[in-house]
Write a structure and sequence with these properties.
The protein is of the alpha+beta class. The chain contains ten helices and eight strands. Helices cover about 40% and strands about 20% of the residues. The strands form two sheets. A six-stranded antiparallel beta sheet has the order 5-4-3-8-7-6, with helices on both faces. The N terminus is likely disordered.
Length: about 260
């Protein structure tokens, strides 16, 4: 399928609930103020993002810092702390790293000369739960970013695992919904998703995981005219890695 000429929507935005009244709601408002584009902030910046008084945010940050849920650097800016990493890695959608899947993703990136992403369904989007950037063979800045389901090959592979009833309830415009349905139907016939952009190609396959939200494995790489064959050659590498990663994710953790 081709997405050439289609502008990419803005990604990585954090939805911050407004009007929280209970202590628990306000605590989560503070934590949700952080995101891929807002990793480090002063307490004043946090207060502005969630529309709470600075004094209230100060009290919340003090408690959260004591717990390790946030941490403050030498410049007085706050970021997410190690406690949140510890809690987050317990979530089924985040245990790619905890289960030891990163070496597999690094190998796929090196063999396919491509960036690698693992995406999981969350809040009507495809959330990036692990990523390897081919140029450095390390995690890039996309961890935690939310990608519209129709905007990438991995997102389409995730959407293909939802029921048609769930896809009908997605908050999409009619043209976007219809385009997504065509992409999902094509993915069902091809057993993979392929999206071409002006200078990049994305390939994605479903991760057949159990007891988890729908997940997908995606690679993206530069695509020059006349190199379509190289795209086909990468597909077996992607499928091989997806099978191995699926095995890792479906193993029951030791008690």
């Amino acid at each position: 399928m081709s997405a050439a000429g289609t502008p990419m929507p803005e990604v990585g935005k954090t939805t911050v609930p407004a009007g929280g009244s209970s202590v628990a709601e306000r605590v989560f408002m503070v934590l949700l103020a952080f995101g891929p584009r807002h990793r480090l902030m002063t307490q004043s910046e946090i207060a502005r993002r969630i529309d709470l008084p600075v004094a209230t945010v100060h009290r919340m940050l003090h408690k959260l810092e004591d717990m390790g849920a946030v941490e403050r650097n030498a410049e007085g800016r706050y970021g997410i702390g190690p406690l949140m990493w510890r809690m987050g890695i317990l979530a089924p959608t985040h245990d790619v790293i905890g289960r030891g899947g990163r070496p597999l993703l690094m190998s796929l990136s090196a063999r396919s000369a491509a960036d690698v992403r693992v995406l999981s369904y969350f809040d009507e989007a495809a959330m990036c739960v692990d990523e390897i950037h081919q140029a450095s063979l390390s995690a890039d800045s996309g961890l935690g970013e939310m990608h519209p389901l129709h905007a990438s090959a991995g997102g389409i592979a995730v959407a293909a695992q939802l029921t048609s009833e769930v896809r009908q309830r997605l908050r999409l415009t009619r043209p976007v919904y219809e385009d997504l349905e065509r992409s999902v139907a094509l993915a069902g016939r091809q057993l993979h998703v392929e999206v071409h952009r002006p200078a990049t190609t994305e390939l994605a396959v479903v991760l057949e995981v159990t007891d988890r939200p729908p997940m997908a494995l995606q690679i993206s790489f530069p695509m020059a005219p006349g190199t379509e064959r190289r795209s086909v050659q990468r597909l077996p590498l992607l499928r091989e890695a997806a099978r191995s990663l699926t095995t890792i994710l479906n193993e029951r953790p030791r008690p």
